UniProtKB/TrEMBL annotation:
Domain Major facilitator superfamily (MFS) profile: 78-692
Family, as annotated: Belongs to the organo anion transporter (TC 2.A.60) family.
InterPro entries xref list: Kazal_dom, Kazal_dom_sf, MFS_dom, MFS_trans_sf, OATP
Residue stretches of biased makeup (Polar residues): 184-195
A molecular function GO annotation: sodium-independent organic anion transmembrane transporter activity
Gene3D superfamilies attached to this UniProt entry: 3.30.60.30, MFS general substrate transporter like domains (1.20.1250.20)
Gene source species: Perca fluviatilis (European perch)
Catalysis: reaction(s): L-thyroxine sulfate(out) = L-thyroxine sulfate(in); 3,3',5'-triiodo-L-thyronine(out) = 3,3',5'-triiodo-L-thyronine(in); L-thyroxine(out) = L-thyroxine(in)
Signal peptide: none
Name the UniProt record assigns to this protein: Solute carrier organic anion transporter family member
Domain of life, per lineage: Eukaryota
Protein's membrane topology: Multi-pass membrane protein
PANTHER family: ORGANIC ANION TRANSPORTER (PTHR11388), SOLUTE CARRIER ORGANIC ANION TRANSPORTER FAMILY MEMBER 1C1 (PTHR11388:SF99)
Amino acid sequence: MDGPVAGSVMGTELHCDSDDSKVEVFVRTITVNHLKRNLQLEAAMKKMEDTATGSWTRANNPTSSTVKKSCHPSLKMFVAALSFAYFAKALSGSYMKSTITQLERRFDIPSYLIGIIDGSFEMGNLLVIAFVSYFGAKLHRPKIIAIGCILMSFGTFLIAMPHFIIGRYKIETSVRWSVNSTNNLSPCPASSESTRAGDRPSILPSRGCERDSSVSMWIYVFLGNVLRGIGETPVQPLGISYIDDYAQSENAALYIGCVQTISIIGPVFGYLLGSLCAKIYVDIGYVDMETVTFTPGDARWVGAWWLGYLITGTITLMSAVPFWFLPKSLPMPVDKHDTTCTPEQTRFIKDSPTMEHKFRPEEPANFHQMAKEFVPTLRSLLGNPVYITFLCVTIIQFNSLIGMVTYKPKYIEQHYGQSTSKANFVMGMINIPAVALGMFSGGVVMKKFKLGIMGAAKFAFGTSLLGYFLSLFFFAMGCENTKVAGITVSYTGVEGLSYQEQSYFSDCNLGCLCSRREWDPVCGENGITYVSPCLAGCTSSSGSGRNMVFDNCRCVALVDTQPGNMTATPGQCPRRDSCDKIFPYFLALSVLSSFIISLGGTPGFMLLVRCIKPELKSLALGIYMLATRTLAGIPAPIYFGAIIDTTCLKWGNKMCGGRGACRIYNTSAYRIVYLGLTLGLRTVSFLLCISGFALLKRHIKREEKIAQTNGSAELESLRKEENSFIHCEQFIPALDCNSDRESHL
């Protein structure tokens, strides 16, 4: 390489006149620069041969040191810490969902108010999410996440606080807890008293109207959930963007899929914890369980809801610890270096301009500059039509998803007659694992088949559409209403009775002074549930506690043709056998549809990340969370709960007056409004997807055109540079001392 060049130099010097110093200096300058460039390239190539080939020759040397270190140890630690934080927040969030029925009964509030409490988590997100996503991305992201976890734990402890400052849980019942109890009033009081029928006070001894503090205690639950929402804000946008920034492109989807999968494990334990706590009585340790005269399957049962919040709050506090020991930034992966540089420059030329992208400098944050750039950055993000369309589709789908998940345990309880504990167990052990498997499988499919933006969009749409068609079969898996005398059936056993208040009374109970406001159900020998022993016409009782039996129930004899069967036992009658046979099929279809729909979860999320500019990633995720929580997370539980409330057949009453929690629903109407609203919202989202695909195709073509234009410009620049070197090499040996050629030069 050096011989021809050196010869050309010597020949030029021999033939050149000594007076032509300018030409000689010019020639020497070109020759020296050319030699230096060749020597640098030779040194670089030699160094490359002596070291591992790295990620640029991964196919030829898969065991190279660079490949082994492709994932930085701190990145692995961050993924593990973020997974634990996702697990903790999902644990507490799912436990909140599992206690909805318990809170509703404990504080005597309707479903729409429970929806407001559930939506308060999203309200907390709404307060700070945009600013945390934007400013947090420019600060120390792991420490911001740690602070958020601490706030979440404090909010969880605040939710449990009302249990320790509120009075004991009290219900009105005619069941005496001891044979020697002084509460031995007759189930059928004489009607000779002056009080009007239907307005008799409680059959319990009068304690006076003690103003129940539970009227305002739910405010603490509301505020605690708001604080949980504020603390959860930085976890997803900052955590996901941190992984996507420092993980290799082909591994980012897998890492995010793993994090999302572990976050799905959180609800498994959350619902299992809810199932366990629902079996434990709310005042465990303070009352003698022998005096509790109703079972966990009763509509008045309240479990130890507060215990789970203490456990989840402690776990969330522990999840904050690892983030304090993680760095602000990590080495950039090789595949995210400047593509205009060669592999040799990136790996071996230490003073390469691209080195500044390998380790981001720890520069102090300039809040004034960040605030100044916020509005233009937001305008640029909202000007992306693909992002806006994706956002609208996601908002509608999330309305359907959040409303469905929030009230699904309650749907299982009311429609299939299962206890709160069993409904939570089913959600945790059967439904949630299917979702976790689907999320993980979606990430694996995207990595294995290397799905691009359009491929991810088609895959997510296809799985969602298939799950939609499977969900239509839920309409056929219905159960009939529970037979309740005076509400769903007449006292003679005729079904299809419209709900009217005066239908509580019949000839069989007119001799008793009964209250229509009470809910103290008993199950007659004829399989019909009666609102209270008084309304069942029972005149005497025997036994105590859960073994108590009401005798001489005249209303029971109206339906039962066999003489002598005039007894009733505390609690509602069990569902029919036909409903028990349908329930396993409901679970199987629920698992299958959940798995198929969740397959598109990870590809759909990666579509969001890849359709925007890298510098807008954190803000886009923040706005995404802001919009979904504001327009889906907050309103969905409220209007789902309000619509479900319209199907209530019997409301409970608070001790000092006013409507309490619903005791029994019209299951047929519940099924129609619950499933109809869920699938109706998803139908609207599919219509928006059509325009979304058209915009996405246009976006991809525009990006490809820009990439081709930039590539052609860079290629042309390289060709010009190469031609200039070739011209110089050809020009040097041709120089002589001819005056014409010197003038030309």
